[in-house]
Amino acid sequence: MSTTVAAPAMDVTVSSLVRRSVADVARHAADPATAEAWLPHVLGRKLPLGFELVSFEPAVGMVLRSSQGPVALEATYTWEPTGAWTKLTLRQTGDAPIVGLAAPLIEKAAAKAMARTLARVVELIEHRAA
């Protein structure tokens, strides 16, 4: 018996460079005082704190997953060295019950919101590590 897994309704990735080391990025991600900055935003709205940390590997990244609400969302942050800087990438995948034909519009809006989230995280890391 084979099972077909449907592709997520949303799959969006954004990246940015951080003027800090991978160790600095990982340290910031592990700091409970800055955890809220890492939470996903969708359609310009901050999602409730109903996220669980699925995995955290200081040299690689972390995965957050929604644990409540109508949208099943997973946010994967990865960081990798690029010289003295770090490439920080955020990928969000998710399923919403009523996406349908609006998926391209939702993905576009999600990409904008994710870019703002990532910019805020980058600013916090660079400011805090300075």
Task: Describe the protein in words.
By secondary structure, the chain is an alpha+beta fold. It has helices spanning 22-29, 103-129, and strands at residues 10-18, 41-42, 45-46, 51-57, 61-66, 72-82, 85-95. The strands form 2 sheets. A 5-stranded antiparallel beta sheet has the order 1-7-6-5-4, covered by helices on one side. It has a two-stranded antiparallel ribbon with strand order 2-3. A hairpin with a 3-residue loop joins β4 (51-57) and β5. The longest helix has 27 residues, at 103-129. The radius of gyration is 15 Å and the shape is globular. The protein starts with 9 loop residues before the first strand and ends with a helix. The relative contact order is 0.27.
Secondary-structure blueprint of this entry?
Layout: E1 10-18, H1 22-29, E2 41-42, E3 45-46, E4 51-57, E5 61-66, E6 72-82, E7 85-95, H2 103-129
Antiparallel strand pairs: 1-7, 2-3, 4-5, 5-6, 6-7
